[in-house]
Amino acid sequence: MVEVWINLVAMEQCNRRAGKEPIIDLNVGNDGSNSDSDGGMNTAGENNNEYNFRHNHNGQNLYPPLNKRLNEVTPDEVFSMTFNNIDEAESFYNSYAKVVGFSVRKDDLSKDKDGIIVSRSWVCSKEGIRLQKHLQRPDRQREAKSITRCGCLAAFRIAYKQKLNVWVVKKFNAEHNHELVPISEVQFLRSHRAMSGADKAQADAMRKVGIRTCHVIDHMQSQSGGYQNIGFTPKDLYNYVDGQRRKQIVDGDAMGCLAYLTAKADSDHGFFHKYTVDEQNRLTQLFFADSKSRLDYACFGDVLAFDATYSTNVYKKPFVILIGVNNHFQTIIFGCALLADETVGTYKWVLTSLLEAMDNKKPISVITDGDKAMRKAIKQIFPEARHRLCAWHLQRNASANVHNKNFHKDFKRLMFNECSIEEFETDWQSVIEKYELDGNKWIEDIYDDRFRWAAAHLRGQFFAGMRSTQRNEGMNAFFNEHLTPRLQLFEFVQHYDRALVKLRHAETQAEYDSNHTSPVTNSALVSIESHAIRIFTKKMFSKFREELKYETLYFVRHTEDHGDQRIHILSQHSSPEAAITVVHYRDEEKMKCSCLTFETIGLPCRHIIAVMKVERLQEIPTNCILKRWTKLARGGIYCTFSTEVSNDETEQMRYSALSASCNEMCYLASKCSEGFHEARNEVAKLTYRMEQLCAMYRRGGTDAGVCEGGPRRRPMVQDPDIARTKGNTRSMPTSMPKARRCSHCKFEGHDIRRCPLLGKGSTCEDSNIGSDIHAEGSGFEQPNLYAYKSFSQSHSMHHHSSIPSTQADWSCDSMRAVSYSCDAHIVQEKDNTFDGASQVTEHNLY
């Protein structure tokens, strides 16, 4: 006979999501039917309180007959039931217990001579009593757990009947010697609290995108119709999430982080990562960049900006982001690094790692916040690069060193005024005299560095339109939404990847807008403007249009011909005495302006556009177009990734895809009672089918649709120490940690929970002897022992957290580097020497 049974467990999961406990009438307002409030379990039938049933091949009832609630089942009806396996029997009894109001636990079982189970029992969780010896333990350190057992005799036993190949009921006692739990509190009973695979998958999916656990449980209770319908408690979810975290760092946090990066290298063959360890094999420094970052650097690595930020991980390691600007004038990430300190040697390691990842291509310009260690490292690794100091940091330093708001305005004007060097020098001197700043040490130092911050001295040097590390500050603010001081390393790299995906989505949007939308021309120079629309990205065209708008302010005052060169002298209508020179090299289709705007930002200036109009050019000269700002900046090079992913990632992607596919169906089915019942029936049937399918795959081995690969073997790397940075030092530990003081005996070294006085039977009323006990010679020396232990532990922690921060602190200046070639599985050793670096082992993987 064809089975018409709907798997009870699948139905329970389906109905729990529909809000079945307590029974809630989901049809109120539609057909006017009322629900029963007795706690019967919902099924796929038309009545929400009824159970479907199935027949076995002998026609025997395996579950209560139709229209029979579980709490109305009689002992005779239970004894008439048979089950195909132990799981079905356990599911029935647990469902019965849930409706009645008690919890179930497994009891004894019997096996035959071949070790096959032939009998299994379940009892009420309150069966038995706690032994007296466990209630009066003199060595107890923690408070005893609450008593839950009271000798209840309710039980359920089944036995295997070999002739019929079914399990029959041998014992069923429905009587309890305790009060049963009301339906609103059943959710807290242990046997009725369990996270299903679907619950875990949903929690994993939400946690993966950064949703906090407390918000996950809020979403689930809202989806289920209340906490009572979730099927587990918030604590269960927290325990599951914590268990998943522990699985990822079973070999330690550092190893979990490196394993994640290695897995990324398996799916992204262009992924590069490199790390170092110290003499104790603790992770000290880590650098990584994926294939997209390396491609971006190949196209836009002419300008590099980097800065260190803090409070992104539990080890307080400085987080360095290496950034640039793409052809949409958006910030892009070239790579990032976690550092042990901020010394010259460490920054040199970061820059050499960057060069190694980027095929030894060096930037032509670098922007930093002025850190001295950074400056020295840049000078040694990028000796030919132009170095610019961050304007934002300079303004902040000016505010700290010169307390005059008017000076701050003049200093800002001096920084950004693109005048001649002579004009800058004259203006600077007048400002110094105006505010009487002669002899100010900071003013003298900043003037000596004017070649790195004054626009007058930086004219003609290409910095891609960046004047400060404000993009770094913006990136720090962006990553702070995803990176918190409580993150372990393995969590840090995952959150970083998620933030990077979000950042790159905006780049994809800009690419689409540039290639598939076109701005409307609004100037008289239609041909030139149309040409700019075709070649420049949308963002860069908007900048070009600003120059195009102001070209009308200029007129050609004088023109000279010198063979293939034509020199145009331009003046502004409002300032006819000021002259701008534009040279047109007609044979080379090239123009050069004395304002050096093109050399500085890479776009034709308003003066060049004015000459184009005079020369009657229809398009922008080729030599006035910088490829990095065009739509073809990447030159047709795109990033490719391997499709091989791990089992967990594949399962997660399948779950997410199916969840998205069901959203529309669930929305439509919830509109009416008929649709709701039909959808729930079909989902229950499909759930049962999927359970059978999964069981078949488990019996057959691994999923054939998922490629498998074990992690690469690597030396065991220990977790890093807490880093000491150049940031805020207010929380630095003192030389002597504050001792703990007991509020009862007033001695130091312990608290009231471990007070020896209370441990010896004293009461709180006896505390008037206070701190005189030790003075009276009572022999009480235990507080000193506690104080010694407490100090030893605190001192040890303080000692290990003291990381050298200067070159003199390091005991050795040699670095032994070990480069890993993961593809060839070859280990090579070489000696590298960095200033101020301790003896470390370096691992390079890509």
Automatic annotation (TrEMBL):
Pfam family, one: FAR1
Matches recorded under PROSITE patterns: ZF_SWIM
Protein name: SWIM-type domain-containing protein
Native organism taxonomy: Eukaryota, Viridiplantae, Streptophyta, Embryophyta, Tracheophyta
Biased composition (Low complexity): 27-51
Classification via PANTHER family: OS01G0519700 PROTEIN, PROTEIN FAR1-RELATED SEQUENCE 5-LIKE
Region (Disordered): 24-58, 707-737
GO MF entry, a single one: zinc ion binding
UniProt entry keywords in alphabetical sequence: Metal-binding, Zinc, Zinc-finger
Annotated SWIM-type domain residues: 578-616
InterPro entries, per database record: FAR1_DNA_bnd_dom (IPR004330), MULE_transposase_dom (IPR018289), Znf_PMZ (IPR006564), Znf_SWIM (IPR007527)
